[in-house]
Structure prediction request, 420 residues.
Amino acid sequence: MSDKRVWKRLLGVEQIVIEDWNLENGDDTLVVSVRPSKGACGRCSHCKKRCPYYDQGAGQRRWRGMDLGTMKVFIEARAPRVCCSVHGVVVASVPWARPNSWFTRDFEDQTAWLAVHTSRSAVSELMRVAWRTVTRVVEVVGKEATERVDLLNGLRRIGIDEISYRKGQKYLTVVVDHLSGRLVWMHAGRDSATVGLFFAQLGPERSKALDIVTADGAAWIENAVRDHAPQAVRCLDPFHIVQWATKALDKVRREVWNDLRAAAEPEVAKALKHARWALWKNPEDLTPSQKETLGWIPKLNRSLYRAYLLKEALRGIFQASTVPKALSRLDAWIRWAQRSRLKPFMKLARTLVLYRPRIEATLRTGMNNAIVEARNTQIRLLTRMAHGFRRVEALIGLAMLKLGRLCPPLPGRLQPTTPS
Ligand SMILES: [Zn+2]
Prediction:
């Protein structure tokens, strides 16, 4: 193998001519001078079309590449500008980097892969870049991936929802494919106009192909769906029904907690505060110590225990083996909640009476508990991702890479890996 081929393999770049290399910074940094090979020269960085030369641009510049062993690597080359008939005067494309980037494509792909698969601090530390840089890379790689793959093809059953970020001040609208569990669309905002943007991108043909749309019953989603996909059965997302019950349970817990504090039982009140997670979680997910906490609730307070049982029973409706069984469980649940003397649950019972036809449609179309749980997990992941991003575009990029399963493979590997 010739030296040049080894160099190209080491740099992971094709279509280049190696001109020279130098060590800098006490031999800690390797700078490789290159130029694009003839076929890759003088092309527009947006459309890759061959264009006439314009000027020298910024002259010589560097791109950070993947480390070689412990050395930082930079690729150095001239960055002339070309004049594209469509995109105007632009920096000529280089085979090793995305347009307007200071990093090679491999470097960015690896950074994005790490951001999807590992912790924030691990990415920064390993790649030796600031977190700000990671978020920018994630945004660019995510955007490119969503433009390359059309996730809106073949949609039949979707869920539309909102998610809050930045401590609940701002909102995103998300669309999930119920069949694949994939996140397929995400946009800042929560109103009918935002949902309208989704349908505009989906187009009238594919909008007509939708069978089922689930949501939380909010009017801004309902109206947009009715306008753009009137044939779709509108269902109430089981996830939200269970969430309503969890909220009602939390209200009861807070009331009990306040009563206990008023009755000067601070120790019990404190313990109850910690019971919050044990009450919220699905019993099958409880840790041993949470199970113990839960075991002590019936002795502590009967109302709170009743509220817990109501929450779990509502979840159980969506686990019933047949639709008639589920409906009879639902009606029994409504009667039970009405008689429970727990105000939050009596109120929820009234809501469910109102939404009963929607819930029936949900059950008849088979939107079962497995989907509820998968969706629940996705929403939790998204909320966690929302921390530490200054730009919402970066959050969208990371979410699409991770939950849209668009993450690029590690450089030099063929198969993209799916995050679990
Ligand atoms: Zn162009």
Q: What stands out?
A: The chain has 16 helices and twelve strands. The CA atoms of residues 27 and 71 lie 8 Å apart.
